[in-house]
Amino acid sequence: MFSLSPEGVEFVKKECSRYETKHSAIIPSLYRVQKEKGWVPPEAVPYLSELTGLPESHINEVLSFYTMFNKKPVGKLHVQVCANISCAMNGGRELAEHLCKHFGVKDGEISKDGKITVSKVECLGSCGTAPMMQVNDQFIENLTPELALRKLKEMGV
Ligand code: FES
Fold first, then answer.
1. What's the pTM value of the predicted model, to 2 decimals?
2. What DSSP state is assigned to residue 115?
3. Which of these, 37, 70, 105, 143, is most buried using a 10 Å CB contact count?
4. Distance from the CA of 29 to the center of ligand 1, in angstroms?
């Protein structure tokens, strides 16, 4: 059965009382789920609905709209490589393919050891420092394949 930690429950309750409407607590609550579980499993929606008193449909609307929520499990490090125009023109797509090949994974797949998922994504809003990748919460910019691998090695893969 799905549940958040006691601290997570407390966090969601606090967020609900913090804003004028409880709907504003949906994004931080979904983030909390992702922080604790690594992704947002479908069972989190009825759980948050019960906890916040908000309809499941409202939580699902937010969850399905925003791409920053992982709707399926990811590796310990989720490497999102931007493949949009500025990054693509500066080698972003080749970078993603290089990382997939290096770690023996397909786009969006978890490595066998569970350590990494490499996903090609749309613009992450860092176009001036292309190509770039987001690793969990961290942006790493002006990449080359060698620099990307070095940074990931420093993070433990
Ligand atoms: S195009 Fe890559 S961050 Fe915008």
1. 0.87
2. S
3. 143
4. 27
Q: What does the pLDDT look like over 108-138, one tens digit per residue?
A: 999 999 999 999 999 999 999 999 999 999 9
Q: How far apart are CA 115 and CA 77, in angstroms?
A: 6
CB 150 within 8 A of CB 142: no
Lining ligand 1 with CB less than 6 A are 82, 84-87, 123-127, 130, 132
Homologous superfamily of domain range 77-154? Glutaredoxin (3.40.30.10)
Backbone φ and ψ for 140, nearest 5 degrees, come out as -125, 125
Q: What residue ranges of the chain have pLDDT lower than 70?
A: none
Domain-by-domain residue ranges, the chain? Answer: 6-65, 77-154
d(Cα 9, Cα 139) in Å, to the nearest integer? 29
